[in-house]
Design brief:
Layout lengths: L4 E4 L10 H16 L5 H8 L22 E6 L10 E5 L19 E6 L5 H15 L3 E2 L3 E4 L5 E5 L1 E4 H4 L10 H22 L7 E12 L16 H4 L5 E6 L7 E3 L2 E5 L2 E5 L6 E5 L6 E3 L2 E14 L13
Parallel strand pairs: 1-3, 2-13, 5-7
Antiparallel strand pairs: 3-4, 4-14, 6-9, 7-8, 9-16, 10-14, 10-16, 11-16, 12-13, 12-15
Length: 321
């Protein structure tokens, strides 16, 4: 059973005149994603910020069109969720039936959880400084920039470059072995808390791509790839995803406004307010349709850390060249 503080999220079928319009918006976003000119790994990394899906669940998205329409705040930025996790159970979707099942890992019980007890605020600040140094090398022209230490992908204008090839030996002046060791340690702790919360065999979970730092501000989007706010389902967008986690590196309300993480449930939106060091994680199927609210002021830093049950899609921790 789920550990710590558990609360079920009630689901019901919703109706409303806005449902068809919301469905059109999601389909339009999905068409943009599929028609994108991005190719290869860099495109995969970028699309996690803009991926959308046109699934049957969109019928009940009547309440999700406004950022202000928050039915419930699951965890506020002023709360300290430690040492006990806060866990919210939701019924699993059928998404996982479309893929090979891996005993000890494939979701049998689904949900979402939040904890402030896995990563310290000092560690979050250190990881934010790492992200700031890397993203200072370039960055998107729009409001969303990414840095992927695994592939080397870094936003530069309207495209991506490989920082390891583009900057060569100079990269050792930007990152240290201690940076990469902290990154690996934190990833391991996040993996362990997901496994414990959902009753998984931690050795049967694998880090997967894309896993990356994100920096989001209120700059007007220049391309569709800057439009990070579209609703999406990770398991639909990336079939390898089974569990998704976010580690926040900045504070809602003081470092930025907007930028809340929103679960789009049948009977309304539920949000997690970012706090430096806070880890939010969830099963990646349609039961956790979500989006990020537009940032209206300041800069929001986070790390998306993704896990798969399929060993063929596993990746290793990054190493400094």
């Amino acid at each position: 059973m789920f550990l710590d503080q558990m609360a079920p999220v009630r689901q019901r079928t919703a109706k409303g005149a806005n449902a068809s319009e919301i469905e059109k918006k999601i389909k339009r976003g999905n068409a943009l994603r599929q028609g994108s000119s991005w190719r290869g790994l860099y495109g995969m990394v970028a699309l996690v910020l803009v991926a959308t899906c046109a699934c049957g669940v969109t019928v009940w998205l009547y309440a999700a069109s406004l950022d202000s329409d928050i039915t419930e705040t699951l965890v506020g930025h002023g709360e300290l969720v430690s040492p006990r996790r806060r866990v919210f159970a939701v019924p699993c979707s059928d998404d996982y039936n479309n893929y090979r099942r891996y005993p000890g890992c494939t979701p049998q019980r689904c949900g979402r959880a939040v904890t402030d007890g896995v990563v310290t605020r000092d560690e979050a600040r250190a990881l934010r400084r790492l992200a700031e140094r890397g993203l200072a090398l370039a960055g998107s022209e729009g409001g969303a920039s990414i840095l992927d230490l695994h592939s080397g992908a870094l936003s530069m204008g309207k495209q991506f470059v490989n920082i390891y090839r583009y900057f060569g030996d100079q990269i050792s002046d930007v990152f240290t072995q201690e940076d990469f060791q902290l990154y690996s340690d934190v990833r391991g702790r996040i993996q362990a808390v997901i496994a414990e919360t959902f009753g998984l065999n931690v050795t049967r979970m694998y880090l997967t791509k894309p896993t990356f730092f994100s920096r989001i501000n209120s700059t007007v989007a220049k391309t569709q790839h800057d439009e990070y706010w579209h609703p999406h389902i990770d398991k639909v967008t990336y079939g390898s995803f089974d569990y998704t986690s976010l580690l926040y590196l900045s504070d809602y309300g003081s470092d930025f406004t907007g930028g809340r993480f929103i679960f789009m449930d049948q009977n309304g939106n539920r949000t997690v307010e970012p706090r430096a060091g806070r880890v939010s994680f969830f099963s990646s199927g349609s039961e956790n349709l979500h989006r990020v609210e537009k940032v209206t002021w300041g800069t929001r830093y986070a790390i998306t850390v993704s896990f798969t049950c399929d060993p063929s899609h596993g990746i290793s921790d990054p190493t400094l060249p």
